[in-house]
Specification:
Blueprint lengths: L1 E11 L2 H32 L5 H12 L12 H22 L18 E4 L4 E3 L2 E4 L3 E5 L10 E11 L2 E11 L12 E3 L3 E5 L4 E3 L5
Antiparallel strand pairs: 1-5, 1-7, 2-6, 3-4, 4-5, 6-7, 8-9, 9-10
Helix pairs in contact: 1-3, 2-3
Length: 209
């Protein structure tokens, strides 16, 4: 059976690496705000706005002129930010259609937090470290948690919280599902007793806390 699973680990960074991650988060925030501003402007002028694919093409065309500094970073950072913006628009119209509070996408500010960014492409994990596109090798504070074999890495999301940096790796992996055998058993969970089974078995609540 094939499943998607995420593994999140804190990063052990040097000052130069922290600066690089701050810049990458800034690129993702800038791409979101750029895409949102253009979509608002397009809607006001034409009654429609571009989707993530169209906006990524527009941004690529502008790289060689106005935004050449984007070449210093992985192309997946602004691309994934525009995809997130696209999802935010889809959720807005879905909620509006269902009569819920829509919640139109908002511009992102550095004052509300550093934020995060997502990477795709050549991501490699080894014991105690991870390699991210255009960033390089970063040390992990926890060894052996992210699998190094038997999985296909789809993306890596880097985020900051209270001065600590984390990486969440989404993987596609195969697991073996054991087929159930024997008669089915009903289980009633409780407080006095942790569980009472329909076959008469009872499990006491250890009340460890």
């Amino acid at each position: 059976m094939e499943i998607l699973r995420a593994y999140k680990v804190e990063l052990d960074l040097k000052n130069k690496q922290r600066t690089m991650l701050l810049k990458c988060a800034g690129v993702a925030r800038w791409a979101w705000n750029w895409g949102l501003a253009r979509r608002i402007q397009e809607y006001e002028e034409t009654g429609r706005s571009s989707n993530a694919i169209e906006q990524h093409r527009q941004l690529n065309a502008l790289k060689a002129t106005e935004y050449s500094w984007l070449y210093n970073y992985s192309k997946s950072i602004p691309q994934e930010a525009l995809r997130d913006l696209d999802k935010a628009y889809q959720n807005f119209f879905r909620r509006k259609k269902n009569g819920e509070k829509p919640g139109f996408p908002k511009f992102k500010s550095r004052k509300r937090g550093i934020g995060s960014f997502r990477l795709t492409g050549a991501i490699r994990v080894e014991e105690g470290r991870i390699r991210l596109p255009r960033i390089g090798w970063l040390r992990l504070k926890e060894r052996g948690y992210i699998p190094t074999e038997g999985v296909h890495i789809l993306s890596a999301t880097v985020s900051e919280r209270a001065g600590r940096w984390f990486v969440s790796v989404q993987c596609r992996e195969e697991i073996e599902v054991a087929r159930a055998i024997g008669e089915p058993v009903g289980v009633d969970l409780g407080i006095k007793e942790m569980a009472v089974c329909s076959d008469g078995r009872r499990f006491e609540n250890p009340r460890a806390l």
